[in-house]
Amino acid sequence: MPAFTVSPTPSATSLPKPSAPRPPARGEGHNTYGPSAGIPAAREAVAAEYTANGFPVSADRVFVTAGTSEGIELTLSAVVESGGEVLVPMPTYPLYTAVLAKLDAKAKCYRLDPSRGWMPDLDHLKSLVTPATRALVIIDPNNPTGAVYPAETRRALLDFADRHGLLILADEVYGDLGFDGPVEPYGLLDPDAPIISFSSLSKAYLAPGWRTGWMAVGRSPRLDDVVGAVRKLADGRLCGTVPMQYAIAEALGGDRSHQITFRKELKARADLTVRRLRAMPGVTCVPPAAAFYAMPRIALPPGRTDEHYVKALLHATGVLCVYGSGFGLPAEEGFLRIVFLAPLNELTEIYDLMSSFTAQYFS
């Protein structure tokens, strides 16, 4: 039976392969430890990329990390003390809540509203701020919903953070995968805001296993101490994956034509996914605008949970989704995350199986 995958590997999904980047082969002298903040060529390439996109960043405020995840963990470790609070979207990427729990800090979850295209509920967000709040996490384009926030929502989030003196942690790893084209960085709206942006080669360059990401710290003086703290933390773990760092400059400065095809193919998969899901009994779905996720909702019978549906679907068909409670949503609300990276013909077969199962589930 086919199953949804969670890893965007070209061999598994028939997605377009980038002609670059390539890490150096063994024997080219790049298998030693490197600078803890990253090799200069990679840091300079990342800084140039952000600056060209309207968010001026200097290379000495860029850190190359083992994927975006390490950058997020370094940053939270630097800015949040025991008992501190961070505003995190819900549904959320579970890394944030896991790291905050490890730090004995608290995630205060602000609601993303499915009735408004998974946009942030700004009124709910305002109700969560306390004197212990240190930062606002924004995941845009969003995982797990695939939402992209319009300019007015982005501006409202920046204004909110400014009013409350919060740092902005902008998780922008899907920025190149907007169906209508690359999504502009938050720093373009206000280059002087205290924004720390995270991204990587994992998604738009189809190289998740390389574990090669970066964090770019904006020019706001409020972030100077963060730069110093992250540098110390980075020193403590020696360095990132050095051979892979040589691919960053080649990727960011090279041919990106594969991304045009990639975005078109993702949009086709998204359209098929939404159309087929909405045709199933008891299923609704907000159309995603980026990345490769959809977050449908199943109108569960009384007493059932999202986990019950997901496990029953898996046992009956071999099709695997992720239940929404894994992203912090109430189990009884029936949300699921679907990864639609499989080829269209496989997705069609998958949705045939899912449709038949769902009809039986409600009968």
Strand order in the sheet with the most strands: 1-8-7-6-5-2-3-4
Q: How far is the N terminus from the C terminus?
A: 23 Å
Question: What's the domain count?
Answer: 2
CATH class of the largest domain: Alpha Beta
Tally of contiguous helical segments: 11
CATH superfamily of the largest domain: Type I PLP-dependent aspartate aminotransferase-like (Major domain)
Q: Which ranges are low-confidence, i.e. pLDDT below 50, for 5 or more consecutive residues? A: 1-12
Number of strands: 13
Q: What integer is the average pLDDT?
A: 92
What key attributes describe this structure?
11 helices; eight-stranded mixed beta sheet; globular; 363 residues; 2 domains; Aspartate Aminotransferase, domain 1; Aspartate Aminotransferase, domain 2
Structure description:
- With 363 residues, the chain is α/β, with parallel strands linked by helices.
- The chain folds into two domains: 20-252, Type I PLP-dependent aspartate aminotransferase-like (Major domain) (Aspartate Aminotransferase, domain 2), CATH 3.40.640; 257-362, Aspartate Aminotransferase, domain 1.
- The protein has eleven helices and 13 strands.
- The chain has helices spanning 10-13, 40-52, 67-79, 95-102, 122-127, 151-163, 224-236, 242-252, 257-278, 306-317, 344-362; strands at 62-65, 85-90, 106-113, 119-120, 133-139, 167-171, 195-200, 213-217, 283-284, 293-294, 297-298, 322-323, 336-339.
- Helix 4 links the parallel strand 2 (85-90) and strand 3.
- The chain starts with 9 loop residues before the first helix and ends with a helix.
- The model is unreliable at 1-12 (pLDDT under 50).
